[in-house]
Amino acid sequence: MSEAVKAPGLTARSGDANRWKALVFIALAQLMVVLDSTIVNIALPSAQKDLGISDGNRQWVVTAYALAFGGLLLFGGRIADKWGRRRAFLTGLVGFALASALGGLATSGPMMFGARALQGVFGALLAPAALSLLAVMFTDARERAKAFGIYGAIAGGGGAVGLILGGFLTEYLDWRWTFFVNVPFAVVAALGATLVIREPEGGRNRSPLDIPGVLLSTLGLVALVYGFTRAESDGWGDAVTVSMFVASVVLLLAFVLVESRVKAPLLPLRVVRDRNRGGIYLSLGLAIIGMFGLFLFLTYYLQIVKGYTPVKTGFAFLPMVAGMITGSTQIGARLMTRVRPRLLMGPGFLVAGLGMLLLTQLEIGSSYATLLLPAMVLLGLGMGTAFMPAMSLATQGVEPRDAGVASAMVNTSQQVGGAIGTALLNTIAASAKTSYFNDHVGGALTKPQQQLLGLQSMVHGYTSAIALAVGILGVASLIAFTFVNAGRPGSVTVASGTGAEDEVPVPVVAH
Questions:
Q1: Are 293 and 446 in contact (CB under 8 A)?
Q2: CA within 13 Å, CB half, 510
């Protein structure tokens, strides 16, 4: 049977019968990495007490992971391209499991910090390898939509699931299980991957490694992430904070200059020059800024203001998780082959922004059912709908030899966005809280009145930061509408002769 004409970048359905089984284990590994970004936060107070970590040093439990993960992602993506994505995936899984076990067995603060840094190192290898495996295994437009719908739901909702699981493990077992739980995840994913993942032949990048690019990108990203982390604890005017930002700008500019001149760059500029990918990296990073800050604020609001237990707090986030899964697998995946990606991403970020806007109405006595529940559902639906086409389009059309580093850029935008979001929104919240307290302290004469004012100030700080997050999501939506101009998967864009462009469906017939 003769084949119908194929659109550029489209292929017939893959002949690998195990690709859907492989998706299960790739998704499981991704869930483990995403869970780890929030599951440890709930366990941190208990771990700090047991290990005798000071208040000044406790941030390193989070920072050590973030620095290693964020700083090494581009390097990890290129290693996956060069070494083989399946091998990088398995190595990342094994290393992450061993580092997690070390964290669970930690007997001191430095041992914990080291384990977290190792988790970040292997996570930086695992995350881009997982996404790039999907990119090269699922090439048919409809199958790709379904696969990335599942992956997008996990990437978006995994952090909230981590809050639930972290609450259960900490409250009913021990904080150490927030680390040990990664071991069975990794073992199952590694065994399954060994049996069913078959990376397509070809597509490896066998060029020599760009050592100057590795050093400049790693140091630049580490300086950037640490700068925002430091700003959260020591302020934006702190000398070390400012010097980190200056160093980051200099290093990353030098990185771009080097990449434009070397023969085998770590990050080929063709990957980020593409209008669609550039728009996706930028809009995703901005959206994550809002999301990470929100997770933190709502966790504190529910536990400190409303008095929820860790487990109840985790369950309170379930509607957001359900919304993300629905948005990604039922809305995004079903519509992706019918409408342009920007018509999912732009409105998705706006719907999420509407959910955020509702949360600016938070008060001490706000009802979960009438305010928080609808806000979380809207936020989840919007993010899930936007994340799904973004994850797919970020690696669509990229050369196979660049799939790993293109995937790493997705994770880098998320990781840097998370660091910025936590620092920036926390700083806004703290400033607004102090200002509100100082303006009203004159009327709080009794101890109960002062305690009430303390809670009111805290909530005011949260709503002020959330209002900024609404604006950030609005900018993310505008970027998606403006930059992302790709057509529907399964169609090609042709000139109509009038200066406009039309989409023409192109049938893809299997052999």
A1: no
A2: 6
